[in-house]
Amino acid sequence: MPRIPNxxxxxxxxxxxxxxxxxxxxxxxxxxxxxxxxxxxKLGPGTLYTTIKRLLETxxxxxxxERPEDDDERRRYYQLTPNGRRIAQAEAEHLERxxxxxxxxxxxxxxx
Amino acid sequence: MTLxxxxxxxxxxxxxxxxxxxxxxxxxxxxxxxxxxRKRFFTDLFVGALGERLQAWHWIRFIAVLGxxxxxxxGTMYVFWNEIALPHMLHAFDVLVGLADVGLLFLPFAxxxxxxxxxxxxxxxxxxxxxxxxxxLLVLFPARExxxxxxxxxxxxxxxxxxxxxxxxxSQLRSSSTWLKLLKISLLGLALLTLSWSWLxxxxxxxxxAPHQIWGALRVVLSLGVVLGLLLGFQRPRTSVxx
Lengths: 112, 243
Prior knowledge:
The complex is a heterodimer. By secondary structure, chain A is mostly helical. Chain A has helices at 10-19, 26-36, 45-57, 82-104, and strands at 61-64, 77-80. Chain A has 4 helices and 2 strands. The two termini of chain B are 35 Å apart.
């Protein structure tokens, strides 16, 4: 199992999660995080780009040249690296285990 | 000043490398964001800028800044040696107040670097005011009695610092438990008392006790309130997820 970085914050995981589907630019990431969390997480641009910077540095995401033709040239698109996908998967499994534990102690409804 | 101008100023706080890499993208993002959402971004951008700036600093730079402040303090003391009342300066109580000032200087920076949720306006503004005021106090601490700077120092020490300390302590204490509510009211009361004492109070409110001792005691109490507020602030979950 890949080692999950200690500094994988909720914001970082949300960004990885939104990029798991397709490459996206900054504004689209903000919108996707908002949608996937049902409006409970609203990333600001400061948090977004400082987190993107760290994810680029740690090699979990990378910039991609694929983009729509008529898009704003200043926008950059990001996608998951194979390692980023593995880390996101490991973190999701970790969260799944926590949810199962929550079910086991009846904090959540459903079968543990 | 428009929101765009403010954002442009905030973007300048980010380190050059960050601006060159993400600056254009950030501007493009802000342009397509709804005005109502953009207002929410203000604090987030500012905190992000401070965090990046601090992280870009090598530890040698921190040492250099501290050394610079130390050199300035020693230089001021040396230049104004005759004007400085040494017995007063070396009074144990003043040393305690000075230590509280120095310690508090670093707390706002520590808080900013550790927060992962966007702080409220009432939190970051006093933090900045506080750090500016305390830097000033730190630099001038050895030269308290120098006449040239007394007025400005009096203003910073007696007006700016209590307001900043009080606001910050209060903004950090949001629990609904009764004793915390009482603490909030006490902090506010102390801040107001200190202010009114500074502006309106007689030279000696209690016979035999010098005003600076009472002021110093209030400052220490306020400082403890802020430290407590910070500690309580750290106990809250560090996430931007709203329940």
